[in-house]
Amino acid sequence: MKTYFQISLALFLAIGAGAAGHDAAKRSAAAERDAKELRAKIRAELKKLGEHEWAGEYYAGDGLGVNTWVAIAPESGYVFEWHGCLGLYDRNYGAVTWTNGRVRLSFTYNNQRKGFQGIAPELVPIAWGPRRYLVPTDEIIGFCNEVNQGREARTSTRGTYLLRKGDESKTVIGFPQVPVKYQSYLRDQPIEATIIAVGEYTTRPSVVDWKFKDTPVTLDAGTNKGLRVGMELVVTEPRNVVEAVEITKVDADRAEGLMTRIGEDATGPKTGWRLSTLAPWNIGR
Fold first, then answer.
1. Distance between alpha carbon 220 and the CA centroid of its chain, in Å?
2. Bridge partner list, 218
3. pLDDT, tens digit, 9 for 90 and up, residues 95-152
4. For the chain, which domains are there?
5. What is the pTM of this model?
6. What distance in Å separates the CA atoms of residue 167 and residue 176, rounded to the nearest whole number?
7. CB 269 within 8 Å of CB 254
8. CA 150, 61, 114 angle in degrees (round to 5)?
9. What confidence tens digit (pLDDT) does each residue in 33-69 have?
10. DSSP string for residues in 55-83
11. CA neighbours within 13 Å on the CB side: how many for 117?
12. What share of residues in the chain are helix, strand, coil (percent, to 5)?
């Protein structure tokens, strides 16, 4: 049985090494100099701007192999860097444009969102009281899932989505101001469900020597309880399982979803397992 440390180390070495060897120009002395100069220019602009709808310095990451920083301002542009266990994984910079409530990035170097590299080319600024987030346009449902689960509003710098520097200490109430079409994904009360059927699993290769195990499941809740396609529910019973189900199809009183686990020997999911949009380890945060 592989330990979490072994799996994490294998991922960091396999994916990180690939990222570190990709597009050496990004890590050249010239790129380092240009990024440093542009970052200084952005910071000078930020001082003049004061409070702004989306300009600022942002961070997202886990403190290990994922540490992404973005400095961004409307006139000067942006600098993006991804650092991990093996040093600098990725870097890019360029101009920004503000259109229809979205920030679009232009790229000096090739940008590929794969493995431990890349940044979304289009970001949506999301305000939550005094906080400011930058969320990829294709990940707003994922952001809502983290709010429902209690992972946001986070109280440390570490998190999945770019949060403006210092905002982790700012208190919020209510919900973040996501675009109207996504507001129904935010729940003031958790949605709970039970697995009532389990389908045949399939496997997918990974970058190391184990596979992803994808198992379809059916839940006893649907639109009648507020479920939407893309919502994520975490396992609450049994308590020793830390997994989640992503909803793929919803009917009035039933929903279909997919649980992805690491390794073919991973047990479950099983009928009778209980799920919730609120992660039990975040209750009371």
1. 27
2. 197, 256
3. 999 999 999 999 999 999 988 899 999 999 999 999 999 999 999 999 999 999 999 9
4. 4-184 (no CATH), 192-282 (2.40.10)
5. 0.90
6. 13
7. no
8. 115
9. 999 999 999 999 999 998 999 999 999 999 998 999 9
10. -EEEEEE-SSS-EEEEEEETTTEEEEEEE
11. 24
12. 25, 35, 40
